[in-house]
Amino acid sequence: MNRALVTGASSGIGAATALRLAADGWNLVLTGRDRPRLDALADRAGGSAVAADLTDEDGLQQVIEAGRGVDLLVHSAGIGWAGPFAEMEPHHIDRLVELNLAVPMRLTRALLPPRVAFVASVAVVGVRDEDVYAATKAGLRAFAASLRYRGVTTTAVFPGAVRTPFFHGRAYDRRFPRMVEPDRVADALVDAVLRGRPEIFVPRWLIAADRLHGALPTAFHHLARRFG
Ligand SMILES: NC(=O)c1ccc[n+]([C@@H]2O[C@H](COP(=O)([O-])OP(=O)(O)OC[C@H]3O[C@@H](n4cnc5c(N)ncnc54)[C@H](OP(=O)(O)O)[C@@H]3O)[C@@H](O)[C@H]2O)c1
Fold this sequence. Notes:
Blueprint: E1 3-6, H1 12-23, E2 27-32, H2 35-45, E3 48-51, H3 57-67, E4 72-75, H4 90-111, E5 115-119, H5 131-147, E6 153-159, H6 182-195, E7 199-202, H7 207-215, H8 217-227
Parallel strand pairs: 1-2, 1-4, 2-3, 4-5, 5-6, 6-7
The structure holds NADP nicotinamide-adenine-dinucleotide phosphate.
């Protein structure tokens, strides 16, 4: 049976991905910090639960040991920070870069499984007041693309807004894109992994924003400022 390690499995997109993989018959290693939520998920999805803080050296090591030999690694653990960049304290910058970017790199290096999926974000095109968050996700995209040269089949997933505890009570006040459910992201992620697709956007039409940003960055910024 195929084995997968899912980070951020205690909540949101990671939990939905774990349930979808379990339904497809995968054997799972589930990790997150919240032990009761992880145990509850393991009851439903099967597999083993490793409660650990990935930014803690011992915690990361514990997860590495539990994940040895997995066929698929799904990086979903991540945090956000929104607000004027000048008001962002240096320790917040470090924390975002560490959990969202350095941890996926270190975990991938330690396990080097044949397939790796990254939950990035459509924020890779740059988002007002989410400067550092956007940069960590753009970093994941470049990392995923580079790993392919090493023969690792990577899938980078770029969701828009997803209905999870990620916003921590912050109101989601953008007009676009509309929020989607985490199951939709999980299904798209697993289908893309099975097909070996390098990149997917959820919802799909968000690819238009990415392509416009790539081809005409000035026009993109003009439109993004105007339409939020
Ligand atoms: N929600 C959105 O709109 C959206 C859109 C685009 C991309 N994303 C990305 O999707 C991914 C999953 O987010 P989500 O929406 O599912 O949010 P979520 O429900 O808040 O889940 C975040 C997960 O990350 C784990 N985590 C946080 N800090 C950790 C740490 N130090 N060590 C280990 N695990 C840690 C959490 O574990 P505990 O709860 O156990 O602490 C939780 O399982 C993130 O990378 C996020 O950037 C989200």
